[in-house]
Design a protein that fits this description.
Blueprint (H helix, E strand, L loop, with lengths): L5 H10 L7 E2 H8 L5 H7 L3 H4 L6 E2 L16 H8 L4 E2 L2 E2 L2 H4 L3 H4 L1
Helix pairs in contact: 2-3
The structure holds a DNA duplex (13 and 13 nucleotides).
Length: 107
DNA sequence: GATGTGACGTTCA
DNA sequence: GTGAACGCCACAT
């Protein structure tokens, strides 16, 4: 527990996101006990690429692909979400609540 | 040891 | 209803 960094927890949760589902930074932060510090969850994603974490399934509370800039700087993030059956328009997830996955609830 | 930063979230004006 | 500012905690320098 304590030996593992906060990032490792974020990676684990993010990797547990089921296919075709998405979650928010705040939801993960809340699951880790860092409620209100959703900023670090996104920051933790800085190393997500090294962990193989599907960061594209993690979006902000509005279902907006805020972090898409950190991928390849293109619509790759949106492309991946659409590939999973998630409707994305203008970097915004449609029916976000329908695709929302809460680690506290389902994990 | 202290300061700055950050892919958010919430609240106030 | 829209816009802006503040607060949060952990990691990096």
């Amino acid at each position: 527990m304590s030996t593992e960094g906060f990032f490792e927890k974020v990676y684990q949760v993010a990797m547990h996101i089921p296919y075709g589902r998405v979650t928010s930074y705040g939801a993960i932060a809340n699951y880790l006990g860092a409620t209100g510090s959703a900023r670090m969850v996104g920051w933790a994603m800085n190393g997500s690429g090294s962990k193989g974490v599907p960061a594209h399934r993690v979006v902000n509370r509005n279902g907006l692909l805020t972090g898409k800039h950190h991928f390849q700087g293109t619509n790759l993030m949106q492309q991946l979400l659409e590939s999973e059956g998630i409707e994305v328009v203008d970097n915004k997830i449609q029916n976000f609540e329908t695709h929302f996955w809460d680690p506290n609830k389902e994990l």
